Each structure stands twice: as structure tokens, then as C-alpha cells.
């Protein structure tokens, strides 16, 4: 099962891209989220078998 949503937005692609890259603006117009936090900066891959995926923050 899938969900498809389409919305018409009156703006140019550059402005839309800028808004989607700013977490404060993204949270304002994307009501699916109450809070959006940017991902952690990329890190080097952990040693094999450590259980942590590269680029993920530890919980």
C-alpha cells in the first residue's frame, strides 16, 4: 500500500530548494514533522562488527 500526495507550490525551484534545506523552514511547511533535526556530520566507518552504521549518530 502506498500514499501519493501532490501539491502545487507557487515558487521557483531555487527558492523551494533553499526552503527544504533549512530545517527551521522545512519544519514550518512540512506538517508531517513536529521537529526536524539535521543528521550528524559524516564520520569515519567504525571498526567491523561495532554495530554502528557509518554516518549515524549513536542513540
Q: What report would you give on this structure?
A:
With 59 residues, the chain is an all-alpha fold. It has a domain of 28 residues. It contains two helices and no strands. The longest helix is centred in the N-terminal third of the chain and has 9 residues.
Name the helicity range: 25-40%
- Strands, count: 0
- Percentage beta strand: under 5%
Number of H/I helices: 2
Shape: extended
Mean pLDDT: 71
Order of helices and strands: HH
Q: Indicate the radius of gyration in whole angstroms.
A: 17 Å
Query: Biggest sheet: strands, sense, closure?
Result: none
Would you tell me the structural class of the helices and strands?
A: mainly alpha
Low-confidence runs of at least 5 consecutive residues: none
Give the N-terminus to C-terminus distance in angstroms.
Answer: 30 Å
